[in-house]
Design a protein that fits this description.
With about 230 residues, this protein is α/β, with parallel strands linked by helices. It has a single domain, classed as Class I glutamine amidotransferase (GATase) domain (Rossmann fold, 3-Layer(aba) Sandwich), CATH 3.40.50. It is built from five helices and eleven strands. A nine-stranded mixed sheet has the order 2-1-3-4-11-10-9-6-7, sandwiched between helices. The longest helix has 18 residues. The radius of gyration is 16 Å and the shape is globular. The relative contact order is 0.18.
């Protein structure tokens, strides 16, 4: 039985079908989860995808965090379920308190749409378990508010606890400590600004996102086996 990945859809999401296609391409099952529903339909992993949830009004993720589905996502995460937030999804997870820090406007106030290089800093997360530590991956970014910020005390804790999952080789947006992705204390919740689903097939120009997505499917499979 394939691992089942639930992909949350908010009004304004625009990357949900990219994630669904990438998951299915790698042999997993994927199902869209509407933001107004409070259940996860038996998902073994959850992805909060990119886009502009609720039009990014107030600030990105500020309204989405109150959607009924997020109560289910929070409970799932608290129980150890793998949750990944990509781009706008990362913003939603920080607003919901599932990850530390916040995402602010890019340095230079410019929207970024480019392929960047990411360095895998740890394999101890739901998104990087099958990646190679120190590997450099080419993955697209597409954001205006991807500048990760966090206070000095929390940054020190992220470093000490090996919770910086990915760093930019050449920082494109001003993120503190070149951070592109972080995880929670349980290592089952990960947020990142780059889009691995857009680097999942040769026709997209890169397959460097595949180890990340396979890691998520591995975590989902382990979750499914434990629940069987």
């Amino acid at each position: 039985m394939s691992a089942r990945v639930g992909v949350v859809v908010f009004p304004g999401s625009n990357c949900e079908h990219d994630v669904v296609e990438a998951v299915r391409l790698l042999g997993g099952e994927a199902e869209l989860l509407w933001h107004a529903d409070d259940g996860l339909r038996g998902a073994d992993a959850v992805v909060v995808p990119g886009g502009f949830a609720h039009g990014d009004y107030l600030r990105p993720g500020a309204i989405a965090r109150f959607s009924p589905v997020m109560a289910g996502v929070q409970a799932f995460a608290a129980a150890g379920g793998p949750v990944v937030g990509i781009c706008n999804g990362f913003q939603v997870l920080t607003e919901a308190g599932l990850l530390p820090g916040a995402l602010q406007k890019n340095a230079g106030l410019k929207f970024l749409c480019a392929t960047v290089q990411l360095r895998v800093e740890t394999t101890a997360s739901a998104l990087t378990s099958l990646a190679e530590r120190g590997a450099v991956l080419e993955v697209p970014v597409n954001h205006f508010e991807g500048n990760y910020t966090v206070d000095a005390e929390t940054l020190a804790r992220l470093r000490d606890e090996d919770r910086v999952v990915l760093r930019y080789v050449d920082n494109p947006n001003g993120s503190v400590d070149d951070i592109a992705g972080v995880c929670n204390e349980g290592r089952n919740v990960v947020g990142l600004m780059p889009h691995p689903e857009r680097a999942s097939h040769e026709l997209l120009g890169s397959t460097d996102g595949v180890p990340l997505l396979r890691s998520l499917l591995e975590a989902a499979g382990a979750r499914a086996a434990a629940a069987a």
